[in-house]
Amino acid sequence: MPRPDLKGYELLELVGNGAGSVVYRARELASGAICAIKHVTRKTIASIERARRQARDPSSRLGKYARLNYRGFFEQIRNEYRVLHGLDKATYSPHIVRVDAFVTLRRLWFVRGYDLIMEYVDGVSLRDKSDYEMADLIRFYREAAMGLAFLHAHGVLHADMKPHHIFITKDRHVKLIDFGLARLFTDPPGRIQGTAEFMAQEQIKGLHLDARTDVYGLGATMYFVLTGQPNRPSISGMSGGLGITVGYAGRADSVRDRSPSCPPALEELILQSCERRPHKRPSSMAEVIRRLDLL
Question: What global pTM score does this model have?
Answer without folding.
Answer: 0.87
